[in-house]
């Protein structure tokens, strides 16, 4: 009888323990599901706020086009950062950047898929100014161009990439994100972080807006030129008054440094208006934060639409 009562007690204790574990698991899972649902709801809310900020940015770009269609420069309203604004449960901040103030890596290749010799030289000089090896220009040309002939001694085509472990192939077409440079053998994250602020991957070859381009890029437009990148503070001060330098100023500085053919290429590669802008939108709600990168294309009529979005990283 005593032995039976002992067994019954042990069984009862086991049942209670199992019930406790089960109840705890159900409770914790319910709490986790509730937290997950709340997080998803907040993320959806933040995304909707981000879409609203995109529409706001489009209106700003349209207003700028209507007011001053002949140039896009850094003293204008579109270029001013948006300070944190209160929204329900959080804040919204961000800004617009002229992506034609960067070097468009897809300009390394002409519309027919062949190498653009002048822009290749510009990119090599930009790399050198950033203390990066010029060989990456050849590797990037081969990554984009349509042929299977390696560019000089530094280039690489399918035969090289298929010999790697694991093997892969270059796309041989324009890239959609500058992060593709990380696929170049040995390029690495440190080089990418140094170069990323100066480059863009726009869908077609574009002109460089001299009103917004960095001093490093402007000086890379001609060998030995050092008219704009030596004093970044002075460059920024000059730009508070309007477009500086004008495309004609850059051509004037580069005339004695380029051949006639290179000078013609330079003139065709410069402008003071832009069609591509990137919005960086940061939405914070509670403990959640959403960073939205939106690439806008503004058409000749001044109307913009988003052609690419990314979240968390450029």
Per-chain topology:
Elements: H1 2-67, E1 82-87, E2 90-98, E3 103-104, H2 117-129, H3 135-144, H4 158-161, H5 188-195, E4 199-200, E5 208-209, H6 215-219, H7 232-239, H8 247-254, H9 260-269, E6 270-271, E7 276-285, E8 288-298, E9 304-311
Parallel strand pairs: 3-4, 5-6
Antiparallel strand pairs: 1-2, 2-7, 7-8, 8-9
Helix pairs in contact: 2-3
Strand content: 15-25%
**What pattern of helices and strands is seen along the backbone?**
HEEEHHHHEEHHHHEEEE
Task: Give the end-to-end Cα distance, rounded to a whole number of Å.
Answer: 75 Å
Q: What's the count of strands?
A: 9
Overall outline:
extended
The CATH topology name of the largest domain reads Ribonucleotide Reductase Protein R1, domain 1
* Count of the separate structural domains: 2
CATH H-tier superfamily of the largest domain: EpsJ-like
Query: Could you tell me the radius of gyration in angstroms?
Result: 27 Å
SS element count, helices: 9
Mean pLDDT: 91
Helix % is: 40-55%
Low-confidence stretches: none
**Strand order in the largest sheet:** 1-2-7-8-9
Largest sheet: 5 strands, antiparallel
Any idea of the CATH class of the largest domain? Mainly Alpha
Can you characterise this structure?
With 314 residues, the protein is of the alpha/beta class. The protein has 2 domains: 2-100 and 276-311, Pantoate--beta-alanine Ligase, Chain: A,domain 2 (2-Layer Sandwich), CATH 3.30.1300.30; 105-198 and 213-269, Ribonucleotide Reductase Protein R1, domain 1. Helix content is 42%, strand content 17%. It has helices at 2-67, 117-129, 135-144, 158-161, 188-195, 215-219, 232-239, 247-254, 260-269, and strands spanning 82-87, 90-98, 103-104, 199-200, 208-209, 270-271, 276-285, 288-298, 304-311. Strands 1-2-7-8-9 form a 5-stranded antiparallel beta sheet, with helices on one face. A two-stranded parallel sheet has the order 3-4. Strands 5-6 form a two-stranded parallel ribbon. β1 and β2 form a beta hairpin. α2 crosses α3. The chain is extended and about 105 Å long. The mean pLDDT is 91.
